[in-house]
Write a structure and sequence with these properties.
Strand order of the largest sheet: 6-5-4-7-3-8-9-10
Helix content: 25-40%
Number of strands: 19
Strand content: 15-25%
Structural class: alpha/beta
Shape: globular
Distance between the termini: 22 Å
Largest sheet: 8 strands, mixed
Length: about 500
Amino acid sequence: MVSDQQPEPFDERDDEFEAIVDAETDRDPDLAVIEAGSRTLRTQAGSPLGEQVPSRPADPEVDKALREVEQELAGRWGETKLEPSVSRIAALMDVLGEPQRAYPSIHITGTNGKTSTARMIEALLGAFELRTGRYTSPHVQSITERISLDGAPIDAERFIETYQDVKPYVEMVDAAQEFRLSFFEVLTGMAYAAFADAPVDVAVVEVGMGGSWDATNVIDGSVAVITPIDLDHTDRLGTTPAEIAGEKAGVIKQGATVILAQQPVDAAQVMLKKAVEVDATVAREGMEFGVGSREVAVGGQLLTLRGLGGEYEGIFLPLYGAHQAHNAAVALAAVEAFFGIGAQHARTLDLETVRTAFASVVSPGRLEVVRRSPTVVLDAAHNPAGARAAAEGITEAFGFSRLVGVVGASADKDVKALLEAFEPIFTEIVVTQNSSHRAMDADELAAIAVEVFGDDERVVVEPRLDDALEAAITLAEEEAEYSGAGVLVTGSVITVGEARLLLGRG
């Protein structure tokens, strides 16, 4: 039975949750995916305001208008259906007057860590009083979260206005192209237009998938950030790290500065070769920058980061796991490179400003604690590399004596390897499925889980996510008196987001 500390009983939220799921599944299911919210940082105010995940607009007319925009976007190709070309987005930029060239950009690609790194870069730039635009995907609860200004998602009215502004031009391009612009391409055009209209001092842009033919790749990023590359989307990007790196290297532009996170050797070789071809400057983690030291602290970790200009000590990062420390090192180097440090200037950024910026960072859905007694943690790991990082991070930061997993995965992922990464830390696993059409059937997932866990007594099947959460919390509460049990919800950004809503954080 769920304890009294639950924000509200599951049955009292069933109607609300089902309504949201119905609304989402009427659209392209990929619009329903959920990945961490947004931090709010208004540079004018000079201080971080914390996480902001907007709910539906309170004004019924605005809500209706936003739903109409969402419905129109849902009628286009979803994010899992791709035609590898930038011709359509380039045509849209042309008729819009090339808005993406109105500001400098930092372009981020990689397999894992892109969004967390983007948030850290945004926090640093904002702390130095630059007006930022951030474009990330997918979104949490509202589509408006994908386009942020000064650290906050644009409001529904502005989102609607931006869509209406670009719609005539989108229709012009649709009429002239073999295929209509996709959902992601239209949103990318909206983001670039919104940033130019703001205007922003710098845009922080995360690729949707890959690099070379990703819709975002019509910018000339003066700084190209490559987070760790691993195997994911192998049906589209390649079956080896080197092949995937070849696609992602497309974000490296002539004369740019490349911030290269630690990579598999073959992936690094591909990136370095591309950098030489376009006369780009490369800064490598572990060589020109990196993590000097790290120790677990209450609510996160304390870091010494070695930047391009020197050392930054006493950095508190309110996120868990070694992977987030490495993301922080990458973000710091990217901002240093943007300011010319390591090339034109031999200096460091102001230490207190850097400390303030990192202390403000949030990344919901990344080892995020959403409940206590028992502790419930959410992590959007959906591939083996992400699962390994999450398993290491939760072991280091929490030290649970008993950890119950709730896993709902997508059928197109390497589910067996994902479960193998979690098996050593899960006492029991509750397998479930989310509302997406891409979700693996719970019984099919259970069969793989039994194979991996080697004991069907460790595997519980609950097809409904709300039932799965309740079952896991009940199992964890069996040890509540010892305060050593916890629950980790993982396997898919969709699963994490829907759990976030059920647990009162949506």
